[in-house]
Amino acid sequence: MKVKTAVLRAAGKAEVIDRELPELASHEVLVKVAADNICTSEYGAFNGSRNRPTPLVFGHEWAGTVEAVGSEVSSVAVGDYVASGYYYDPYTLPSREGRTSECPHLMSADHPNDDGFFGNAGCAEYVVSSEVACYKIDDGIDPSVAALLEPLGTCCAGFRRFGCDFGDTVVVIGAGTMGILNALVAKAHGCRVLITEMMPKKLEAARRLGLEAIDVSAVDPVEKVKELTGGRGADGVIVAVAAASAYAQAIDMLKEKRGRLLIFAAGYPAPKWELDPNTVHYRRMVIVGTYGADYVDFKEAANLINMRAANFEELVEEKIPLDQIQHAFERACEPGMFRISVICNEE
């Protein structure tokens, strides 16, 4: 079965080709993709800021309808509306809970597929996926919103490691897609959330989503956080932009003792961070890194989407047809954009 599939030929050059789909294995499903959102790592490969092998088929933020199932599939059925998480091994561990997953856009990164393409193709008319990577979404939810399951799941994973609790004050630095998703997860867990940003469009989006937004072009964000917390500082800070200044601000925003810092964003090239280890020691700080997500996190993300915990449509900037994939990437690379959603099949 040949399907229209987006491919990144080289930095700055994307196109749509006809590509043969693999046969379904016993625990795999065929999904008709409604929408696939372009993530940071993918437009980074397009603009040359991230080194990914080409030709690259891509797409791990997708949602669609199950069209066929393998002989041993039991968790989803034909007609189910699903969104994509990551693959994991469901057969050698005693329980699903907490299973470590593999990020599909990094699979096949070093070795090409049989047809010479690197990566996994979710930005296509149809995709073959493991059943365990599919999470059920309620009917009526916009596919471009459902496709936020993967990035939302990574925020759930980060918060699970973060260690902040109900009633804590959390600051998120950066109100891009991932910053706002981190803020919404913290808010869903009962935290008071402050979010810092300088771009008016992002500040407005954050406020429409009910977040306390601090305009860093108008005030000193550290002083404002101290003011809003009665001089105490934040219980935790999530750094959702990769910049040396953000790390310095985060340390200064934290409460004096036992503050928690979550390093969420990766930067290319990697930003420098000068941190005095004695500061961490005497202030008894907890610094946590996070990347990817597990089954439990995608399950939580699906619940948040299905219960409509926030107006996630705010984070879908524009919907562009699959046959305009070059334009979609060019739009995704423009500064200040939220998610560009590629429409792979019209309803």
Automatic annotation (TrEMBL):
Cofactor dependence: Zn(2+)
Domain Alcohol dehydrogenase-like N-terminal, residue spans: 26-139
Gene3D superfamilies: Medium-chain alcohol dehydrogenases, catalytic domain, NAD(P)-binding Rossmann-like Domain
Location of the Alcohol dehydrogenase-like C-terminal domain: 179-305
SUPFAM superfamilies assigned: GroES-like (SSF50129), NAD(P)-binding Rossmann-fold domains (SSF51735)
Sample GO molecular function, one term: zinc ion binding
Lineage: superkingdom: Bacteria
Classification via InterPro entries: ADH-like_C (IPR013149), ADH-like_N (IPR013154), ADH_Zn_CS (IPR002328), GroES-like_sf (IPR011032), NAD(P)-bd_dom_sf (IPR036291), Zn_alcohol_dh (IPR050129)
Pfam families: ADH_N, ADH_zinc_N
Sorted UniProt keywords: Metal-binding, Oxidoreductase, Zinc
Family classification: Belongs to the zinc-containing alcohol dehydrogenase family.
Protein name (record): Alcohol dehydrogenase
